[in-house]
Specification:
about 725 residues; six-stranded antiparallel beta sheet; Cathepsin B, Chain A; globular; 3 domains; Rossmann fold; six-stranded mixed beta sheet; alpha+beta; ABC transporter transmembrane region fold
């Protein structure tokens, strides 16, 4: 009888502390349809894996994001306007976009019976027969067609490796239609540009000489019409360039940031400040490509057209222009080596200066407490002085190019006039022809001056692109083409086999041939002296780093075969150093989750002790935490992190010093709740506090990266008390 009562009470406690966040809320029809189609095509994947890292709108997948999401599952997609009666059965299954932001999967069409076989994911009822007439009432007219992408054989992967530069130029090529329109507009602009010199030629040589006023009005009307068309073409060209710039900016910026967030931790740059500065350099690349180089490069071929016109009008005078162009090119080439050196040094020093700025702002409290302002100030001023020196040199060289090109333009004009006067008295050129050649001189030298000016900007853009290429070449957690194993459920068995690990840039192994097995539902504490590798074990379990050798497995599967987002969804983690983000308490608790209601949030907050300080604030869960959670105390930040870890009721809990900043009363309250919460879960506790060891049944002692003791809690505690073990 007592046994039965105890069992019922235990079950009651488990139900009382059971969280509701594990249940998927079906409020994302496109995502559900994609997951269903992925399963149909033999590429099963979870909802968390598909949406991880995507910029969801109201926590839901949009049509614009569908292609990116489908690509993660190895599928390609295309949105088309299509009538239901004209759908081809060979293109099925497909997704029908319905009114009211709904969607369904179309699996078959029965034209004779007038019905469609569809699946509405939100009902969970499987395939249904729906009359075509009924479906047309809610059908939006658009369908998404999906098919598996072709996979390259791994044996030939060396021949198919994508160069780091292709990420940028591939995006640029995606705008080729816009650039085609820019080219057409530039062609017309340059052809129209030839009208002015020939208009002047005819006015001087024909109209004035013969007092042909009717011809004057005809020519003037024609040139004004041409000017109107030129104005229209210039406006269109500017619009096309801006449109291309916007598109490239959106695509490339999204690609870069997605790369940064998906980068492996071991590939993370050492300096966050320098890294952020390199990311900002994309602006200089964008401006160089879209605003300056496109118009200049497009206009450059028409220099030849201007030279041909001068040769047609004045013959030998074209030699003056050719010599001027040659001098401009020679001077620009001569200046490139010192200019490149100055730009490179300025670029690197700017990154270093930004690193000092970021460190100073993030660590301002520590700097003030230690009185270290002078050291930071000295580093800042030295960086600024170095940048000023080499920046001044780069500007001097760039300005010298501009000044020289302006001088060459003036001398070319004078040379053309001198040669033209001699040609007039020799009877080889008319006065109107000389004026026309002078106008053409401007049109010939202007694009060349722009090319020379671009040379100085080129080095800035080149260094920025090299920095971004280096970032884009970094390894990521989800390499393109890699297929992860999908598992619907995890028990929570964890095993580390012969694991060794050293942090990037260090030759010292933090873990050395470590072996550890934790069964599902087991409650284990990992203790040891500082620097023994306790926190590192947790980082390896979360897949943040890969072991140098050995294997980390969950339920017998190497975690490198599990999608990182799915793995981290499995483990509720409270890190040693809690990081919060600007926003509200609510925002920080639900960070990284979807479809969570207020009941789940409040339950997790109550368990973690968040409600103890939230209810004292009139804003409640909407109270702001400040940048990096500076508006909360250390213990309050830990409470928020615990609520975040408990929210989804994961089968595995990993707590690393969860109460290190809490007072005894708060810790005691949390401890009582945790005893009930961790029942039936795999619970891993990393701690220095002996008071928390009552939560576990087993203690693992780690020292110098290896397990030195492993056994029941009471036995290990006795060994520590007797001196047989020491920390």
């Amino acid at each position: 009888m007592n046994s039965t009562t105890s069992s019922e009470e235990s079950k009651k406690n488990q139900d009382e502390w059971k969280l509701g966040g594990d249940t998927e809320v079906h409020n994302d029809p496109l995502l559900d349809c994609l997951v269903l189609l992925a399963r149909v095509h033999g590429r099963p994947v979870s909802r968390n894996v598909v949406r991880a890292g995507l910029p969801l709108v109201n926590n839901a997948l949009t049509v614009q994001l569908f292609t990116r999401a489908a690509k993660r599952t190895g599928l390609s997609s295309r949105v088309l306007r299509q009538q239901l009666t004209t759908l081809n059965a060979l293109t099925l299954p497909a997704i029908l976009l319905l009114e009211g932001h709904r969607a369904c999967v179309l699996t078959a069409i029965d034209q004779d019976g007038g019905t469609l076989s569809v699946i509405f994911p939100e009902t969970g009822m499987g395939e249904e027969k729906v009359p075509i007439e009924e479906m047309e009432k809610i059908y939006s007219g658009f369908a998404i067609f999906v098919r598996p992408e072709f996979r390259i054989n791994n044996q030939n992967v060396e021949d198919q490796v994508e160069r780091p530069q292709s990420w940028f130029w591939g995006t640029m090529l995606s705008c080729w239609r816009i650039y085609r329109d820019v080219l057409i507009a530039s062609l017309l602009i340059n052809i129209f540009g030839l009208a002015t010199p020939f208009y002047i030629l005819n006015v001087y040589d024909k109209v004035i000489a013969n007092a042909a006023f009717e011809t004057l009005w005809v020519l003037s009307s024609g040139i004004l019409i041409i000017y109107l068309f030129e104005l229209l073409m210039r406006g269109l060209r500017g619009y096309f360039i801006d449109e291309a710039g916007q598109k490239v900016n959106l695509l490339v910026s999204a690609t870069i940031f997605e790369k940064v967030l998906g980068m492996k931790m071991e590939a993370r740059p050492k300096s966050v400040g320098a890294f952020s500065k390199n990311l900002q350099q994309f602006d200089s690349i964008r401006d160089f490509i879209t605003s300056f180089s496109i118009t200049t490069v497009v206009d450059l071929p028409f220099v030849l057209l201007g030279l041909l016109a001068i040769w047609y009008l004045a013959g030998p005078m074209v030699v003056v222009h050719i010599c001027a162009i040659a001098l401009l090119i020679a001077f620009a080439m001569y200046i490139q080596v010192p200019l490149r050196r100055a730009v490179q040094r300025t670029f690197k020093a700017s990154a270093q200066k930004n690193a000092i700025l970021v460190e100073g702002l993030t660590g301002i409290e520590t700097i003030k407490m230690l009185g270290a302002e002078s050291q930071l100030q000295r580093g800042w001023e030295e960086s600024v002085s170095f940048i000023s020196k080499w920046g001044a040199k780069a500007r001097f060289l760039s300005n010298s190019v501009n000044h020289f090109s302006h001088f060459i333009g003036q001398t070319t004009l004078v040379g053309s006039v001198i040669v033209g006067v001699y040609q007039i008295y020799a009877g080889d050129l008319t006065r109107g022809g000389l004026i026309a050649c002078v106008i053409l001189t401007r049109r010939v030298t202007a694009p060349m001056n722009q090319v020379v000016n671009l040379a100085s900007r080129y080095h800035h853009a080149k260094e920025a692109l090299a920095a971004l290429n280096n970032i884009m070449a970094k390894p990521v957690e989800r390499p393109p083409g890699k297929t992860f194993l999908h598992r619907a459920h995890f028990k929570g068995d964890i095993e580390l086999t012969n694991v060794s690990f050293a942090y990037p840039g260090s030759t010292t192994e933090v873990l050395k041939n470590l072996n550890l097995k934790i069964s599902a539902g087991e409650r284990v504490a990992i203790i040891g002296p500082i620097g023994s590798g306790k926190t590192t074990i947790g980082r390896l379990l979360l897949g943040l780093y890969e072991p140098t050798s050995g294997m980390v497995a969950v339920d017998g599967t190497d975690i490198r075969q599990i999608d990182p987002s799915e793995l981290r969804h499995l483990i509720g983690c409270v890190p040693q150093d809690v990081t919060l983000f600007s926003g509200t308490i609510r925002d920080n608790i639900i960070l990284g989750t979807y479809g969570i209601d207020d009941t789940d949030i409040f339950r997790a907050a109550e368990l973690a002790g968040v409600t103890r300080f939230v209810k004292k604030n009139p804003l409640g869960f909407d109270m702001q935490v400040g940048e990096q959670g500076k508006g909360l105390s250390g213990g309050q930040r830990q409470s928020v992190a615990i609520a975040r870890a408990l929210l989804l009721d994961p089968p595995v809990l990993l707590f690393d010093e969860p109460t290190s900043s809490m007072d005894n009363k708060t810790e005691s309250s949390l401890k009582k709740k945790l005893k009930k919460i961790v029942e039936g879960k795999t619970f891993i506790l990393v701690t220095h506090r002996a008071s928390l060891l009552d939560l576990v049944d087993r203690i693992v002692v780690v020292d110098s990266g290896t397990v030195v003791a492993d056994g029941p809690t009471e036995r290990v505690k006795d060994d520590l008390k007797s001196g047989q073990l020491s920390l």
